[in-house]
């Protein structure tokens, strides 16, 4: 078994006290970083160093640290979630970097994701898009039908599950030159549009969610496909096409 390795790195981290103040990149040096540690554990180590130096620690979002919640979203060396593919920031390990590397760490950059502090951004715009139509009406009076009793084409079920894998991290927005949220919205529309349970609100859902997306200030799709490449869950561009079809059908009704 390979022995544990430690590296020394330099960091350029975005520091910003609040949305109304200007931020800047601040230089830090961190020694004896285990290559077995995750990127967030490295930031924990940096914060411990800052606290010991009686300096203010860096604010960053995190929760599950298992690649499920999407809270750990960071822009690392010019890429959403860092240099690896198909992982969130918390799943990125320091073995991806070399001794002496300089690492740039920034928050998501989007008008619709204003900075709260340092590396933390406000992604409540995603919540409002979901609230606008990301739900189904279910009779909970005691007469509900077991979901497994509703026959669904396997191909549709698989596509719905793939779309539902979206964790709403916002990497698609951060990567897109226009700050578009169409991959996120397309995934949320698709996971219901493909299933019979989602047919009741199908028309209102896509109209309301797209309207809310526009009101939040997200840009239009660039058609470059960068969102799909950087998405940690591999959400397909097919979902944007499906959302466009659903939107067209709803607009003609």
From TrEMBL:
- Any Gene Ontology biological process: respiratory electron transport chain
An example Pfam family from this entry, by short name, is Fer4_8
Among SUPFAM superfamilies, the record links this protein to: 2Fe-2S ferredoxin-like (SSF54292), alpha-helical ferredoxin (SSF46548)
Cofactor annotation: [3Fe-4S] cluster; [2Fe-2S] cluster
Taxonomically, the superkingdom here is Bacteria
- Which residues are in the 4Fe-4S ferredoxin-type domain? 157-187
Listed GO molecular functions?
A: 2 iron, 2 sulfur cluster binding; electron transfer activity
Q: Which NCBIfam families match?
A: PRK07570.1 (NF005746)
Question: What family is reported?
Answer: Belongs to the succinate dehydrogenase/fumarate reductase iron-sulfur protein family.
Q: What protein name applies here?
A: Succinate dehydrogenase/fumarate reductase iron-sulfur subunit
Question: Which species expresses this protein natively?
Answer: Flavobacterium amnicola
